[in-house]
Amino acid sequence: YASANEAWRKTIDAITQRGPVTPEDYLRLGTAYAAVGDYRKAAAALRVSVEREPSLRAWLLLSRVESMTFQFASALASAEKAGGRSDAAVLTARCRALAGLSRYTEAVSDCREARRLAPSSPEALYYLGVAYEELHRSGEALTSYESFLQETDALHSIDAYGHFLRGNARLSLAQLRTPGGEVPAEVIVAAIGDYTRAVNLQETFARALYNLGLACVRLGRSEDARMYLENLKKLNDSEKDRELADMLMEAIRGMQRH
Question: Helices in 202-238 by DSSP H: which ranges?
Answer without folding.
Answer: 206-218, 222-235
